[in-house]
Write a structure and sequence with these properties.
By secondary structure, the protein is mainly alpha-helical. It has a single domain, classed as Ribonucleotide Reductase, subunit A. It is 62% helix and 2% strand. The chain is built from twelve helices and two strands, in the order ααααααααααααββ. A hairpin with a 4-residue loop joins strand 1 and strand 2.
Length: 344
């Protein structure tokens, strides 16, 4: 009887690749090669939360009162309408388009965590709509009825369409580039640009002590999305490093074109949400902000900034703090504690 061949089957971490890996079993997690992917997974776990833990009594009271203007109500509804579908699109893209073609187990481990977080985010908008007794048909169908929302969602769905076709794979140069385009479209544009404008709108109201329960939930989503964005950037840059031929000058120009289109879509969305502006927010401020964050995203993937805008919302950095969590019982920011060490 022959001896087991276990030693010959052990994973050589150096042979791991983010896409198109045929030499290593994608199910064998250890030893790790991409420690950044595992760190993002651990950070995601440390930020775990559920929307039902956030009290909504003050929001309900305020929503039923006459203390919110029609313009403020429009901002809140428009963002609920956009995010309620956008989070589902991101989750579907992970499960149906990205996971299959990422051939590294530690990166897949994070994708599983992210997919669950997208489900929590969709749950969040259901919880908010239910708490405020909003019309769920109105909110969850805005992607069909509001042109500015429909345009952004359609832009993203076009980037997934080709990858979902039967027979698509990343084994060809064209297939790998199309996959990389999808990653840029969802991590850099959807989560890195489209989402951040919405966060700024809702968190601006939260800073004015308005809709604080909704604002707290958006803070948690923002913290999740910051990890999503960082993972996506590392994934894109890792694929570029392993496949430098994909990052051609023509492809870089194509990415610039996509981000140009996305910034125009986001500015149109801001004008729809803020036709006349509200306290502390105008559509013109978001034109600045969209250009500012688009430049930061371009720089993170090795491209030159091109919009040269200033940040009108410097306070946004205060809520992007992955080492902190909200203490639901004291309603103040405290250091995060896992369930095993939570001091009651």
């Amino acid at each position: 009887m022959e001896a087991p061949q276990g030693k010959q089957q052990r994973v050589d971490a150096d042979k791991k690749r983010l896409i198109n890996c045929t030499k290593v079993d994608v199910n064998q997690l250890m030893p790790l090669k991409y420690h950044w992917a595992w760190e993002h997974y651990l950070n995601g776990c440390a930020n775990h939360w559920m929307p039902s833990e956030v009290p909504m009594a003050k929001d309900i009271e305020l929503w039923k009162s006459n203390k919110l203007t029609d313009a403020e109500r429009l901002v809140i509804k428009r963002n609920l309408g956009f995010f309620s579908t956008a989070e589902s699109l991101v989750g579907n893209n992970i499960v149906l388009a990205i996971f299959k073609h990422v051939t590294n187990p530690e990166a897949r481990q994070y994708l599983l965590r992210q997919a669950f977080e997208e489900a929590i985010h969709t749950h969040t908008f259901h919880y908010i709509v239910e708490s405020l007794a909003l019309d769920p048909g109105e909110i969850f169908n805005m992607y069909n009825e509001i042109p500015a929302i429909h345009a952004k969602d359609s832009f993203e769905m076009q980037l997934t369409e080709h990858i979902l076709k039967d027979g698509f794979n990343t084994e060809t140069f064209e297939g790998s580039q199309k996959f990389l385009e999808n990653l840029v479209g969802y991590y850099i544009i959807m989560e890195g640009i489209f989402f951040y404008s919405g966060f700024a709108m809702i968190l601006s109201l939260h800073r004015q002590n308005k809709m604080t329960g909704v604002g707290e939930q958006f803070q948690y989503i923002l913290r999740d999305e910051t990890i999503h964005l960082n993972f996506g950037i590392d994934l894109i840059n890792g694929i570029k490093e392993e496949n430098p031929e994909l990052w051609s000058s023509d492809f870089q120009n194509h990415i610039y074109d996509l981000i140009d289109e996305a910034t125009h879509l986001e500015i149109a969305y801001a004008k729809d949400c803020l036709p006349k502006g509200i306290l502390g927010l105008t559509a013109e401020m978001f034109e600045e902000y969209v250009g500012y964050i688009a430049d930061r995203r371009l720089e993170r993937i090795g491209l030159k900034a091109r919009y040269n805008k200033k940040n009108p919302f410097p306070w946004m950095s205060e809520v992007i703090d992955l080492g902190k969590e909200k203490n639901f019982f004291e309603t103040r920011v405290t250091e995060y504690q896992s369930a095993a060490t939570l001091a009651w």
